[in-house]
Every structure is written in C-alpha cells, then in structure tokens.
Design brief:
The complex is a heterodimer of chains A (114) and B (111). Helix content of chain A is 0%, strand content 56%. Chain A has 114 residues and is an all-beta fold. In chain B, strands 2, 4, 5, 9, 10 and 11 form a 6-stranded mixed beta sheet that branches. Chain B has a 5-stranded antiparallel beta sheet with strand order 1-3-8-7-6, with no helix packed on it. Chain B is built from no helices and 11 strands. Classes of the chains: A mainly beta (114), B mainly beta (111).
Chain lengths: 114, 111
C-alpha cells in the first residue's frame, strides 16, 4: 500500500459517456498528478496540481477535465472521449514543497473507450 | 518544456551480467533525476534517484551517474537477476513538480 488509491481500476465507456476517475492520497502530500500510460507514449504528463492549484496542463484536450478540491483528492472528468484515449491513467503524489521529489503512484485506472 | 530521451528501448542480458540504460535531458533547470521500475501490471516504483549536486550514487547492485554538462545520466545494474526483469523509466524534474519520463527500457534477464 503506497497510500495512493485510484478508483475505478477498470472502466469501459462509449464515446458519448461521461465518467470520472478518482484519486486519493493519504501521505500528506501537496502535489498531485495525472499521467497517461499507453504503448505509444509511456508515462505522459497530463496535469499537475500544487496546493490545489493547477500548475501544469500539458496541452491536454478539453475532453479531459481535472478537478482538485483539496490536496488529498484529484479527479479526472471524462467526456466524449475517442478510442485513442484508451490507456492506463496513473495518479501520483509528491511532497510538493521545495520542488522536485519522489512520485508515489497509484495502481492506475485502465480505461477502454469503445 | 523538458524532453527526456532514453536508450535502448529493449535490453536482454544473461543472468549475472551488467545492464546499462542511458538517458539525456534538454532542460538545464532540471535538478532531480529518478529511475523507476515497473513490473508487469504494477505501478512504477522508485529504485534510485540523484540530484544535480551529485555525480554518482550507488545502492547495492544499482548505481546512477549524472553528467550535468552533457545533460545525460545512466542507470547501471550489476550482477543482474531474473527478478530485475521489468520496464525501467528515467525521469527529469525541475523545482516546478513537472517530472517528465523517458520512453522506457524493457529489460529481460535470462537465467
């Protein structure tokens, strides 16, 4: 148990559905991340939140909408996705203070878009 | 933004041999360089890291070297074992919590 929990672990959705991925960390960290892991682009940074403020949006399409209500929770809202969005979505957290530090990953949410 | 290149993409070694994976980065502001190991179906986990004020770091069979001038860093695994088989990712980060990863190296250690 690394202290980073993601739900659901598996999700299948149609292109017109709306769904959300949830991430929760119990490590007292202040920075949270979404990464996309696919065969074509392993571990691609999507979003970074530091003290609940979004500090990085790596040119992610608007059909992915992140939400960080507090330092312990991070969501990724999904709407009108494409089949090429099928991937493993990994949440991570880090201390966030003083800059760079080790990332602690969740188990990931395996998304399939039909 | 930061761009991290990693080579080779696949590496096969005999048990007991050494394995070396190399990475380059582009952003001179990067100051933290971790290496992650991801076993099949599992999350990436940190195995060793190095900061820009250090040139080399060792932890048992694993070592990392950093050349800031050339902007490259390497992972060295000695006396490889079958359980070392996994995908290894290098990464680079500045003080802005913007860690970016290389494309990964699939290491296979043959018994």
């Amino acid at each position: 148990e690394t202290g980073v929990t993601q739900t659901p672990r598996h999700l299948v959705m149609g292109m017109t559905n709306k769904k959300s991925l949830k991430c929760e960390q119990h490590l007292g960290h202040n920075a949270m991340y979404w990464y996309k892991q696919s065969a074509k682009k392993p571990l691609e940074l999507m979003f970074v939140y530091n003290f609940k403020e979004q500090t990085e949006n790596n040119s992610v399409p608007s059909r992915f909408s992140p939400e960080c209500p507090n330092s312990s929770h991070l969501f990724l809202h999904l709407h009108t996705l494409q089949p090429e969005d099928s991937a493993l979505y990994l949440c991570a957290s880090s201390p966030g203070q003083g800059g760079s530090g080790e990332l602690f990953f969740g188990e990931g949410s395996r998304l399939t878009v039909l | 933004g930061e761009n991290v290149e990693q080579h080779p993409s696949t590496l096969s070694v005999q048990e007991g041999d050494s394995a070396v994976i190399k990475c380059t980065y582009s952003d001179s502001a990067s100051n933290y360089f971790p290496w992650y190991k991801q076993e099949l179906g599992k999350r990436p986990q940190l195995i060793i890291d190095i900061r820009s004020n250090v040139g080399e770091k060792k932890d048992q069979r694993i070592a990392v070297t950093l050349n800031k001038t050339a902007k490259h860093f390497s992972l060295h695994i000695t006396e490889t074992q079958p359980e070392d088989s996994a995908v290894y990712f290098c990464a680079a980060s500045t003080n802005n919590n913007d860690m970016r990863f290389g494309a990964g190296t699939r290491l296979t250690v043959k018994p």
